[in-house]
Amino acid sequence: MRIKRITAIILAFLLVIPTFTQAQADESSSEKTDPQGEGSYSEKNEVVYATLNASGDQEEMYIVNNFTIDQPGKMIDYGPYTSVENLTNLNDIQFEDNEVKFSASEDQYYYQGNLEGKALPWDIQISYKLNGETVKPEELLGKDGQFEIQIDTKANDKANSVFFDNYLLQVSLPLNSEIYQNIEAENGTIASAGKNKQVTFTVMPGKEETFNVKADVTDLEMESIEIAAMPSSMSIDTPDAGEMKNDMKSLSDATAEINDGVGELKDGVTELNDGVAGLHEGSKEYKSGIHELDNGSSDLVEGSKSIDESLEQISQSLEKNSGETNLSELKELQAGLSQMAEGLKEVEGGLSELIEGYNGAYQALDQSIEAIPGPIPEEDLEKLYNSNADPKVIEQLIKNYEAAQTTKQTYTFKDGNKPSVQEFLQSVGPTLEGVVESLKTMRTQLETMADGLDKSLANMDVNESMKQLQKGLKTLSTKYKDFHSGLVKYTNGVGELSSGYDELHDGVTELTEGTDELENGVDELHDGTTELANSTNDLPDQMQDEIDEVMNEFDKSDFEPVSFVSSKNTKVNSVQFVIKTESIKKDEEEKEVQQQEKEEEKGFWDRLLDLFR
Asked: For 58, what's the count of Cα atoms within 13 Å in the CB-facing half-sphere?
């Protein structure tokens, strides 16, 4: 190993000797031919070299200035350098008060200026984690585990913002594949570079970014992170957005159609809600009427029962005492018949009022159910499902719509020979009218008997009248028993109808509340689709404006370069930045010791063979 190092040193020395000799000759030659008149250059280029520590803090900086000479002679450049160095020849450069004076005869002239305290346009911060814990860079060397690097790039407000706004950053991390496995780099590209993996990130002009690289690491070492910055001066052609604009126009038209459909749906739901509101009012009146009818049924039955018992009692009394009836008893009978006729007349009047109230309630109920709109077309429902409406609103809308349709179908549904709800309710009114007609007939008969008995008493034809009266009362009593039996069945039916209708009315009430919520929900839905339609109405133009804005943001083809060092410098053609961080690596002596330890572990034959390898 030692022999190899000595040999390398000798060879390097032999190579340097002719170079040094040639440099001396060049120096002598340049001193003789160095022009003394005023010179000029056609353009100037600056390359900024900066080094950062492993955490991203700036350490050293120098500028390599290059001039394309069109007229040899003396020239002046500017910069707040701490020192300058001629990179073209061995001639001296004069530097005083931030002025660099030199003479150039070559086509290309280079000099280096060293800077201190000059801020880069980017504030770069680098942090490290090992196994989830933040670790200082100096503590990472040789470690194993899950490794993560985070790189933050921000604008540095201490530097000229023109570079941050117009320059593209490229951040590169060379990672040894023997050390780093399972590399992950979100928003970055990973490429193979020999035995290494090259991870690259790009930062667009004017943007602040954060990048992360994750990997499994063994015996950690890390090369320098390299950051290059150059002007994003390429011209970007505006893409042809014609087809996309046509698609956006189709989307805008479809959104408008959806809004129109939802508007029609809103009108339908409003109509539905108005119909259901009317249904509720009609149902409320019907419920009140049927309850009133049911509450009066007991009095009606009791009154009818009293009439039935009185007729039977009178009829039996006349049969037993047909030969003993005196004039005063006949007068009392005549008065009793008149009173019963008056009682039936009152019952008849009460039922007539109930019929009128019931018919009004039924008509309101029937008209309200009839006002419920028919089924909504499937295509309108499909538009609703495909809209951007709140799914909960759509679900509530469909639920209430289906409930309204179920109510309408249930109202008219007929199961075999059984009457529908509508037919049953229709029959109640005529039945009540039949009851009233029967009561009217019996009342007329009682009034006729009372009048006949009164006339018989006046004509003193008592016996014949009594026979007719007895026969009539017996017939009336028999018919009234049938009437009373039917009346009891009818009132029982009214009671069942009253009890059952409470549940139906509760359902109508829930339906009314639901359709009211539904109308509010569809109103909100229509407001949303209207806003969406308005916002997408000029979507193609908006898209074109966005494309133009993005193109203007990243097209820096009109950027005019300026000097990074001094605003006094002119004819600046380009300024580039080359930035590197310090590496995290073992020093050469440590590596050499480790290599020697490995060689000492080899056997004699292995070491002998190494001499010939």
From this structure: 20
Do both 59 and 154 map to the same domain?
Answer: no
User: Which of 44, 42, 47, 41 is CA-nearest to residue 573?
Assistant: 44
pTM: 0.48
Domain ranges, residue 434:
284-501
3-state secondary structure of 471: helix
Do residue 490 and residue 387 come from a single domain? Answer: yes
Whether 469 and 454 have beta carbons less than 8 Å apart is answered as no
Handedness of CA 272, 278, 281, 285 (dihedral sign): negative
pLDDT in tens, 231-286: 875 444 455 556 665 666 666 676 776 777 677 666 767 766 676 676 667 666 66
For residues 599 and 438, what is the distance between their CA atoms, to the nearest angstrom?
A: 130
Strand 58-71 relative to strand 108-115, pairing? antiparallel
In whole angstroms, what is the distance from residue 242 CA to residue 157 CA?
A: 41
SS3 444: helix
Do 86 and 172 fall within a single domain? no
The number of beta carbons lying within 10 Å of the beta carbon of residue 192 is: 9
- Joined tokens for residue 55: 């955490």
Give the per-residue pLDDT at 279: 66
Number of H helices, E strands in the chain: 11, 17
Instruction: Clarify whether residues 325 and 425 are in a common domain.
Output: yes
